[in-house]
Amino acid sequence: MGFEFASLLGKLGSSRLGTSEYSSIVSMNLFVALLCACIVIGHLLEENRWMNESITALVIGICTGVVILLTSGGTNSHLLVFSEDLFFIYLLPPIIFNAGFQVKKKQFFRNFMTIVLFGAVGTVISFTIISFGAINIFQRMDIGTLELGDFLAIGAIFSATDSVCTLQVLNQDQTPLLYSLVFGEGVVNDATSVVIFNAVQNFDLSQITTAVAFQLIGNFFYLFITSTLLGAGAGLLSAYIIKKLYFGRHSTDREVAIMILMAYLSYMLAELFYLSGILTVFFCGIVMSHYTWHNVTEKSRVTTKHTFATLSFVAELFIFLYVGMDALDIEKWKFVKDTPGTSVEVSAILLGLVLVGRAAFVFPLSFLSNLMKKNQHEKIDFRQQVLIWWAGLMRGAVSMALAYNQFTKLGHTTFRGNAIMITSTITVVLFSTMVFGLITQPLVRLLLPTPKSLTRMISSEPTTPKSFIVPLLGNGQDSEIDLGPHVVRPSSLRMLLSTPSHTVHYYWRKFDNAFMRPVFGGRGFVPFVPGSPTEQSTHHLVEEETS
Amino acid sequence: MGFEFASLLGKLGSSRLGTSEYSSIVSMNLFVALLCACIVIGHLLEENRWMNESITALVIGICTGVVILLTSGGTNSHLLVFSEDLFFIYLLPPIIFNAGFQVKKKQFFRNFMTIVLFGAVGTVISFTIISFGAINIFQRMDIGTLELGDFLAIGAIFSATDSVCTLQVLNQDQTPLLYSLVFGEGVVNDATSVVIFNAVQNFDLSQITTAVAFQLIGNFFYLFITSTLLGAGAGLLSAYIIKKLYFGRHSTDREVAIMILMAYLSYMLAELFYLSGILTVFFCGIVMSHYTWHNVTEKSRVTTKHTFATLSFVAELFIFLYVGMDALDIEKWKFVKDTPGTSVEVSAILLGLVLVGRAAFVFPLSFLSNLMKKNQHEKIDFRQQVLIWWAGLMRGAVSMALAYNQFTKLGHTTFRGNAIMITSTITVVLFSTMVFGLITQPLVRLLLPTPKSLTRMISSEPTTPKSFIVPLLGNGQDSEIDLGPHVVRPSSLRMLLSTPSHTVHYYWRKFDNAFMRPVFGGRGFVPFVPGSPTEQSTHHLVEEETS
């Protein structure tokens, strides 16, 4: 009806937008309206704590797909074809940047070694198991022609965790350790999967020599270090520019604009140099929240904080809505409709491999990580290990994008084997996001029955005698103010012997205060008048959510 | 160098972004970096009050175009081809929405009749004169084949004013009357130019009957009213949703997201129904700032205010950078390089017609408008008329977009006449923006030598005996608090006799308070605890810039 009305008006109206296809305007309208619906419905379902916005968006996306499928007479199901570019260039950067910007840096850096262990070694283990399983099982089944490269790609596709979904399912305040481990792993996982995917597509894997293996490992470290440095560099540059020029004098909007543009530039530069944009923009977010954010005006702080969160929120909804709609893309399902059993079987096998592949590294690596730590309260207990295993099972848009890259040409596929892999990927993504995602929250409440006290234990607040050292670990965001001059600091030698990782932090803080902050600003380097009530209370307003 | 380095790394790196063209990533990097450069350089030039950011962006764009032209050996000058879709779908909406959101509503509605007179009747006069001049002058020159429809299109193209440039050149606080007149005219001008452009392209103009003329006038009113209602409706819907659901309870980001999405949806719906998206999103901005903005949390207020301003700021920079780069598009200039004299001549004639066409309606219509007003201080004096004439001379991206629509097919042209019109449009846009734009500020200072006192006079602050009525005109944003209960309100009959337009405002306020605010919220309807220092001072923080 709306469409007829529009075409009727069309005769009267302008033809200004004539060059753009009218159908794309219809799609955009519907898409934006659906995003609004997701927000409203997600809000209404907020009371129901099992539900989250991703799943709402997925369900709405699927329902819309069904409606479009029915109205178009079964020929078409999606408003927009899934595009890797849209995903990697526009939707992913704000999500990962915001995660870096809002992450609790204390937790993240304290668990840095464990995170890298999980993200790098863990992903390799998971990749190996899934590839191996796929080769052994699928070759005996009748699912069309798949080569060795395809099986290895399957391993890479299904070991790419979905950082976005983790953000939605776990709560940073409720389970800080789990959140930082699973999410941090997801970020490192991206760098690893870039290396693995590249290796699968470019190297001749039929003859793996030690030289090739070393090249791959070197490649990983090269990617990891350059990506991190690029992100940190972009963040520091933005801090320096804003501190030096003091944009706020003229307009707070310039500060906000330059922060957004520099963050985006860091991601695009990483993509330009074939680095891991996700790692780059994540570290750019961390550096920006540590330095740049403290150099801008109070109003810019409130604005950037919420703008980044909103952008990330909308991009997440967009992705889930998009994946939900694309799930019913009729072209791929045509190939499997004769043999629905095979598709279900393949999906089930893949889900099983994902479960096994993840278990195969979470438990052994947690054991290893616990060996390195002396303090009982820093170790990962068994229930936490189960949760880490479970919370990282979701596969999302990254898997979809990789699968489309490997098994289709410009979104189309003609081989039966490829079509089955695409539909199975969609099935695994939908199933893992909806079922595993829905169960995670209840599981957290089941395994960590008193989250309040457990959180306190994990985040090592008082109760232990080390309480006077703990503030030194802070990144300056949530602890500096508590640290009055009356606290007696232990000698650095004693600290180094007892708690090596804490000492690193202590020296980082000394270095930060002596060299970094005078150049790049950061907390306390902006003129701050404690007497002014406006400044003070907005400061409070901002701090409330940060800490 | 960077490119070789990148391709070298390419062999090592990921092929994940393989489907997107690598060159588009290079372009985006360069473009984002140039935007950052514009902000920094614009900030450094801020002290020089003759300069503004648009012109900086234009100059940087032209310089980049020259560099690309030289490095590519004269084959290519732009990073991105000018696209109407990009302009009308992504860049224009945030600019116009923000203008509506931040406009001083008091000034705007008080001068509403004058604005509509200028925007509608004035545009028609300007269109007639430019078309007539073009027919008479260009037909005697050797500039290829142009038909009647082309000449009328030229009239429409060059009577479309550049609202974006007006925002940059005039200062709302310094010259509120001029700003609201020229900018308001620009917004109404858009609705008119939609109707005219449509008429030129669809109607058989060789035989204009009174029936056709009435149809056109009816069409204009239909467009104007439906677009306004759609915008106001979208704004009210957002206010109602946010008031009813109170998103802020759970997350302030949802409020921000829904405001942005609803505003964008209103624009896209207008385009869907072939209405004037500019008018729609402008009124949506006005309604949102009057109702919705007051229903959200304090943090959301700060965030939305600065987010909209930042988006608009970046979109403006983007447009000017883009137009600057596109100005050197070599394909169009090839046609005119044999006869550079003709192109210069055509551009000069068009500039002359623009000057005459605008003078032909500003002075007579100002006279008419002055006749309708009784109070001396509300009339537009001659120096102000000169400034209104001058400040609306800029032609910008809208003219470019219309010219591309009329004279090219997908950005390419093969006829000499068409190519000359394109290059002349570019010349007129660049010349008017840079020369007229640069001269406007000095001209304002020359003609209004004591802006402080004049501003006060124009905005009718105290000094006149009507001072106790004036607060009633406020939209509740800048006057309500001053209005203590001790102010004696005059009887409505006396008011109606003495100041009819003020009385309309008074009754609007009564209606607003009695019916609109209880449903849609607005200032004062959010629970507000005056005792809480946090709330109060953030409120102050927000108010500072609003008022």
Your description of this structure?
- Chains A, B: Keywords: Antiport, Ion transport, Membrane, Potassium, Potassium transport, Sodium, Sodium transport, Transmembrane, Transmembrane helix, Transport.
- Chains A, B: This is Sodium/hydrogen exchanger.
- Chains A, B: Belongs to the monovalent cation:proton antiporter 1 (CPA1) transporter (TC 2.A.36) family.
- 2 copies of one chain form a homodimer.
- Chain A is mainly α and 547 residues long.
- Chain A has a domain of 371 residues: Na+/H+ antiporter like fold.
- Chain A is 73% helix and 0% strand.
- Chain A has 22 helices and no strands.
- In chain A, α14 crosses α18.
- The N terminus and C terminus of chain A are likely disordered.
- At the A-B interface, α1, α2, α4, α9 and α10 of A face α1, α2, α4, α9 and α10 of B.
Could you write a compact summary of the structure shown?
Chains A, B: One of its GO terms (cellular component) is plasma membrane. Chains A, B: It catalyses: K(+)(in) + H(+)(out) = K(+)(out) + H(+)(in); Na(+)(in) + H(+)(out) = Na(+)(out) + H(+)(in). Chain A is mostly helical.
Features:
homodimer; 547 residues; mainly alpha; Na+/H+ antiporter like fold; 22 helices; 73% helix; 0% strand
Overall residue-averaged pLDDT value of chain A: 75
Global morphology of chain A: globular
Q: Stretches of chain A where pLDDT falls below 50 for ≥5 residues?
A: 1-19, 451-490, 526-547
Major sheet characteristics of chain A: none
CATH class of the domain at 82-452 in chain A: Mainly Alpha
Multimeric organization: homodimer
Please identify, by name, the CATH architecture of the domain at 82-452 in chain A: Up-down Bundle
N-end to C-end Cα span of chain A: 51 Å
Q: What is the strand tally of chain A? A: 0
Helix content bin of chain A:
over 70%
Largest interface: A-B, 88 and 88 residues
Name the structural class of chain A.
mainly alpha
Output the helix-strand order of chain A: HHHHHHHHHHHHHHHHHHHHHH
State the CATH topology of the domain at 82-452 in chain A.
Na+/H+ antiporter like fold
Q: How large is the radius of gyration of chain A? A: 25 Å
Give the number of helices of chain A.
22
The fraction of residues in strands of chain A falls at: under 5%
